[in-house]
Write a structure and sequence with these properties.
The complex is a heterodimer.
Chain A: H1 3-14, E1 41-47, H2 51-54, H3 58-68, E2 73-79, H4 83-92, E3 110-114, H5 121-131, E4 146-150, E5 166-168, H6 172-189, H7 193-200, E6 206-207, E7 212-216, E8 222-227, E9 235-236, E10 264-267, E11 269-270, H8 280-284, E12 289-290, H9 293-307, E13 311-315, H10 325-336, E14 342-344, H11 355-364, E15 369-374, H12 378-383, H13 390-402, E16 407-414, H14 421-440, E17 451-458, H15 475-488, E18 494-498, H16 501-511, H17 517-526, H18 540-549, H19 554-558, E19 573-574, H20 579-590
Parallel strand pairs in A: 1-2, 1-3, 3-4, 4-5, 9-19, 10-13, 13-14, 15-16, 16-17, 17-18
Antiparallel strand pairs in A: 5-6, 7-8, 11-12
Helix pairs in contact in A: 3-6, 5-17, 6-7, 9-10, 13-14, 14-15, 17-18
Chain B: E1 2-10, H1 19-33, E2 49-51, E3 60-70, H2 76-83, E4 91-97, E5 108-116, H3 122-134, E6 139-145, E7 151-157, E8 162-170, E9 173-181, H4 190-201, E10 207-216
Parallel strand pairs in B: 3-10
Antiparallel strand pairs in B: 1-3, 1-4, 2-3, 5-9, 5-10, 6-7, 8-9
Bound molecules: iron/sulfur cluster.
Iron/sulfur cluster binds near residues 287, 288 and 603 of chain A.
């Protein structure tokens, strides 16, 4: 029997037994099926988490459509199977397959993973294994498949260095096609894997970990990182200089099973002008670049037409910083109201929520209101450079309450540098002030109480932020702060939610880890760590045991202060922002001093040097 | 406002869409097609969309219907040609017409069932089927509603709700066509009958394929 028919039959045996089988069968509206004979390079885009999560991800949608826009390339989607499906696949001997062709990805040319969060790393190993491939790069000797990875966590990919053949740093639109063109040539000319990797390392933005040697000091810190075989000493990330000219999909694959974000997404800008010191995305996606309202409006229209979605979200790190938000909303509202399409605006910030904008937003939706003050006291907000005053927060809430809102969600972080118990109490006090405000509003809806949700995440110090030098709070310190926060709340109108400290701890270990973690990563996965982003599958105990077996101390990675002079495991990667800038910002943080955002004044972070026309383009935006 | 009934087949990959996902997929397909569909009025308008008879997850359907309403008259051919390319893989619209009957007119449905065995078993199953159909009654435990929101298991005789129309035995497989009571008042899911069959045969197939091939009224005419 033909292999594909055999797979279909095997799937018919197991799919009726698993939860939400439509996740594993493809065929959705907008999915692209080509014929294998017609394409030169087949690419498996793997998202190391479940379908519902992966299908929400904008980056994947962009690259999927982009690669498929080339007649000689075919990109398929692959997600991690949930546990029940994973067991069935193993039992029936079904290798991981692409959702479009239903063919095993081990026969593809390239397999690409997106690195969105550290806790998905073990799932990557599991997916390689399910595909029937050795997890270690050195054991995959052929030119195909080449295993690549990109996405935010590629800014410190060292804990994955032994598994991934090459990493793509920065924005993928241009560099992915360059890489695939090189691969097409390599395949046609019969290059070896080594020859291909060596040539790939010459493309800006491509990091081939096997071409770098890492030496360590006796105290365990990195002594040096040296490149070999002509690979650049420093790999610089890629950016797309002109966002209005770059590819944007006119169609999405519409998920068969409801995804977390199941709507037309329009990306309004890249980067963030703010410079919140804890936020990795805010630094690694610099510089700040916007798209034209006209471009965005036509994306939104095209997407709704092609997908049948009745909701558009304007996405970015900071949509309300978009300088032409009002004209954009005007053009969009022009047709969306007629066509019964809703607009949603995530991540609105407190301080630029003007009256007329608020009016437009009320036309847009009236569900909950979400703010991220991140810290409870002004002092800490200055430390983290979150340029919001309490007065601004309260003013916005007053406005919202007058507009009929009755619930507010507030996001905070615990364990920020220099935080004291007083700062923790400040969170409860701020929430209390918001509750009080609600009851002071004479026009509050009758018979309705207010609901303030405080969500407190554990702070994870990340590479390429001014806090990359900072120790993380220990699990015990986190727990004490959480207890204190809960005890400081005196009303049922405020509910407190917090994250699992153990998760934050492992994130901190992996985020700033070095290559020696690869051994532990493989061991932890072999012991069953997979889909760790899901609480029910997460086991810190397994990790602690494995790290100890490998002679590694997690506190060395998570809870230690690094000197400014220390060579970091990611020091051979260049994301634009300079270490000097990060040190300057760190010092200002410890002096409670803020830095203005890029729209007001440039603080010479270095990111403008990423523009192809070089240094000196300021203001960056 | 013009009522329209869309008849479609749902096979292949599409059989794994759960009913809720199917409803969402079809409503998006209709939106994508740009057909001038009628929305319910009121504060939260939504597309009018009614499926006459939900199909279990994993079953194929050859006579599925969904009702929509249009704001203007559009000929069937055009509806088919506009909607067809907007549907997910495995859907095929084969007819569009004005609804004749209410969904409550549905009384029976024919199911084609294919049981596949890795090794022996087809023979035993076929004998068991013969025995079962000769019995005056087939008692199974069936979920029944008892008051609002309460469900209990009740023993019921499903024999009057089953007719065996056709049976064919091949090497390692047993095919049959069953006519089952289907509809709002009485409804028998094929899996209930099949479970009784497996119990009688003391063997389970390795692979089951089920397709609802016809949906009928009480005169055994196709539902229209
Ligand atoms: S170079 Fe200046 S304007 Fe550009 S991102 Fe850096 S700080 Fe902001």
């Amino acid at each position: 029997m033909e292999e594909k028919q055999l797979l279909m039959e095997k799937l018919d045996r197991i799919l009726p037994k698993v939860q939400k089988p439509a996740r594993y069968i493809g065929g959705e509206i907008g999915s692209i099926v080509k014929s294998p004979q017609d394409v030169a390079v087949r690419f498996a885009f793997c998202f190391p988490d479940l379908y519902e999560i992966g299908m929400s991800h904008l980056g994947m949608k962009i690259l999927y459509s982009l690669i498929n826009s080339r007649p000689d390339f075919w990109c398929e989607r692959v997600f991690a199977p949930d546990m029940d499906m994973r067991d069935c696949m193993k039992e029936q001997g079904i290798p991981l397959y692409g959702l479009e062709s239903l063919e095993p990805i081990k026969d593809f040319d390239m397999i690409g993973f997106t690195l969105q969060y550290e806790l998905s790393f073990t799932t990557i190993l599991d997916m390689l294994d399910l595909a029937g491939l050795p997890v270690r790069s050195s054991q995959r000797k052929e030119l195909y498949p080449i295993v690549i990875a990109g996405g935010p966590c590629a800014c410190n990919p060292e804990p994955l260095a032994d598994f991934i053949d090459l990493f793509v740093l920065g924005e993928g639109e241009e560099v992915n096609l360059e890489l695939m063109d090189l691969y097409k040539q390599a395949k046609a000319e019969g290059w070896s894997k080594e020859a291909f990797l060596k040539a790939a390392s010459q493309i800006q933005g491509i990091y081939v970990p096997s071409l770098y040697q890492v030496a360590y000091n006796p105290d365990g810190t990195v002594a040096s990182i040296t490149s070999e075989e002509g690979a650049p000493a420093k790999v610089t990330k890629r950016i797309v200089a002109d966002l209005d000219c770059i590819f944007y999909p006119e169609s999405f694959v519409v998920p068969a099973v409801e995804a977390v974000h199941d709507r037309a997404m329009v990306e309004v800008l890249r980067g963030c002008a703010r410079g919140c010191r804890f936020c990795q995305a805010g630094f690694i996606y610099r510089p700040f670049r916007e798209k034209e309202p006209g471009t965005l409006n036509s994306y939104g229209k095209a997407l709704c037409d092609s997908t049948g979605y009745d909701e558009i979200s304007l996405t970015s790190l900071s949509t309300s910083d978009y300088t032409r938000l009002e004209p954009l909303l005007d053009t969009l509202l022009d047709w969306t109201e007629k066509e019964k399409v809703n607009l949603s605006l995530p991540s609105l910030r407190v301080d630029n929520f003007s009256d007329s904008l608020a009016e437009k937003i009320t036309r847009v939706r009236k569900s909950g209101l979400t703010f991220a003050p991140e810290a409870g006291t002004q002092r800490i907000r200055d430390v983290i450079n979150k340029n919001i005053t309490e007065e601004e927060i309260l003013r916005t809430c007053t406005m919202a309450f007058e507009g009929g809102y009755t619930s507010v969600k507030l996001y905070f972080m615990l364990g920020l540098p220099t935080e004291t118990m007083e700062d923790v109490e400040g969170i409860a006090q701020l929430a209390q002030k918001i509750v009080n405000l609600y009851y002071e509003n004479p026009n509050k809806p009758k018979g309705k109480g207010v609901n303030v949700t405080v969500s407190a995440a554990g702070f994870v110090p990340k590479p390429f932020t001014p806090f990359e030098f900072e120790p993380q709070d220990t699990i015990e310190q986190f727990a004490a702060k959480q207890r204190h926060l809960v005890e400081s709340v005196r009303t049922k109108k405020i509910s407190v939610k917090y994250h699992n400290n153990k998760v934050s701890f492992l994130e901190a270990v992996l985020a700033r880890g070095d290559r020696r973690l690869c051994a532990a990563m493989e061991q932890a996965w072999r012991k069953g760590c997979v889909l760790e982003g899901w609480d029910e599958h997460f086991s810190l105990e397994t990790w602690l045991e494995t790290l100890a077996e490998c002679g590694l101390d997690p506190a060395f990675y998570a809870n230690r202060r690094r000197s400014f002079e220390e060579v970091t495991p990611w020091s051979h990667l260049d994301y634009g922002v300079t270490k000097d800038f990060l040190i300057r910002e760190n010092k200002k943080a410890h002096g409670d001093r803020t830095t203005p955002n890029c729209l007001l004044q440039c603080s010479a972070c270095g990111a403008s040097g990423l523009y192809p026309d070089g240094e000196g383009r300021w203001p960056c935006p | 406002m013009i009522p329209v009934r869309i008849f479609y087949r749902k096979a292949g990959r599409a059989k794994y869409l759960a009913h809720l996902d199917l409803m969402r997929s079809v409503s998006r397909a209709i939106k994508r097609s740009g057909l001038p569909v009628w929305y319910t009025q009121g504060f939260n308008p939504h597309m009018y969309l009614t499926f006459s008879l939900p199909l279990s997850l994993g079953y194929e359907g050859m006579w599925e219907t969904v009702d929509i309403r249009l704001n203007e008259e559009i000929c069937s051919e055009e509806i088919i040609s506009r909607l067809s390319p907007c549907l997910p893989a495995g859907f095929e619209i084969f007819r569009v017409s004005t609804p004749v009957q209410e969904p409550s007119a549905i009384e029976w449905a024919d199911y084609h069932v294919e049981l596949l065995f890795d090794e022996e078993g087809a023979d035993r199953m076929s004998h068991a089927l013969a025995r079962l159909m000769e019995q005056p009654e087939i008692l199974v435990m069936k979920k029944a509603k008892k008051g609002p929101g309460r469900k209990i298991l009740k023993e019921v005789d499903i024999r009057p709700m089953v007719q065996l129309l056709e049976q064919k035995e091949g090497e390692n497989c047993l095919d049959m066509t069953l006519r089952l009571r289907t509809g709002l008042s009485q409804n028998l899911n094929p899996s209930l009958f099949l479970d009784a069959l497996y119990k009688e045969a003391e063997v389970e197939p390795d692979l089951v394929r089920i397709a609802r091939v016809a949906v009928l009224d009480d005169h055994l005419h196709p539902f229209e």
